[in-house]
Amino acid sequence: MLSDIHSNQFIQRTVVANTSEIKANRNSSHRFLGYGIPIFKLDHIFEDCQRQQFHKMSHGERKGRLNVVKFLELGFAVACLVLHFYSFNDRDIMTSFLATGTFTGYIIVVIGVFAGVLMRAPIHKRIDIFFSVLGCTLFVASGVFIIEAWEFSFRTRTRDLALIKASLSIVNGVLFGFDAVFTFRDK
User: Fold this and answer.
1) For the chain, what is the largest distance between any 2 Cα atoms, rounded to a whole number of angstroms?
2) Fewer CB in a 10 Å sphere around the end CB: N or C, the chain?
3) Which run of H or of E encompasses 152?
4) SS3 sequence, 71-108?
5) Exposure string for 146-157, b = 16+ CB within 10 A, e = fewer
6) Contacts of 23 (CB under 8 A, 6+ apart)
7) Domain residue ranges of the chain, discontinuous segments joined by +
8) 174-180 long-range contacts, Cβ below 8 Å, gap at least 24?
């Protein structure tokens, strides 16, 4: 990445001095960085820090399995949103708001995760776990509220679509839960 190259060059330029140059400059009026403190080249430490941060990222070595799970989550969220469009007559306005926000929001979140993976900028594992646990909660809650809203209505095509939407929402919530558990257990 371009920013990694610039930060690496900055560290190389800043930390190039060795002790012999500093000793030579102590007698002159210019001291290195104004203090005369010896600074050593820290490239290997910087690379180790980058490597450790990469291992804390969510999509490092487990890219194949994760792409399948995230693709399934995205597919279920899109299916829920399409079914929500065709069965939008939920009895409760709060159920409609919760379902619309959950389906649309998590389509955006999962597409953002895919974009991060494609640009080789994976998200941190803690953030991935947070989004997965929150997605699990929101999708299961949406599914339960939708079932509750349509449970005792007459059997129509709209009711059938709403119950299918609720079932897919609960399945996607369980999938987000498994994603959170596997991300947490992955080392």
Assistant:
1) 93
2) C
3) none
4) HHHHHHHHHHHHHHHHCCCCCCHHHHHHHHHHHHHHHH
5) bbebbeeeeeee
6) none
7) 2-55, 63-185
8) 174/136, 174/140, 175/69, 175/72, 175/73, 175/76, 176/73, 176/132, 176/133, 176/135, 176/136, 176/139, 177/132, 177/133, 177/136, 178/69, 179/69, 179/70, 179/73, 179/132, 180/129, 180/132, 180/133, 180/136
Residue that is written with structure tokens 């594992």 in the block:
125
Three-state SS at 57: strand
Amino acid at 69: V
- What does pTM read for this prediction? 0.67
Q: Residues 136, 109: contact at Cβ < 8 Å? A: no
When pLDDT is averaged across residues 43-72 and rounded to a whole number, the result is 61
Q: Are 140 and 170 in contact (CB under 8 A)?
A: yes
- Residues facing residue 39 across a β-bridge: none
Number of helices (H), then strands (E), in the chain: 7, 0
Q: Hey, what are 11's tokens?
A: 């560290």
E-strand stretches of 3-157: none
| Mean pLDDT on 3-17 | 48
pLDDT over threshold 90, residue 99: yes
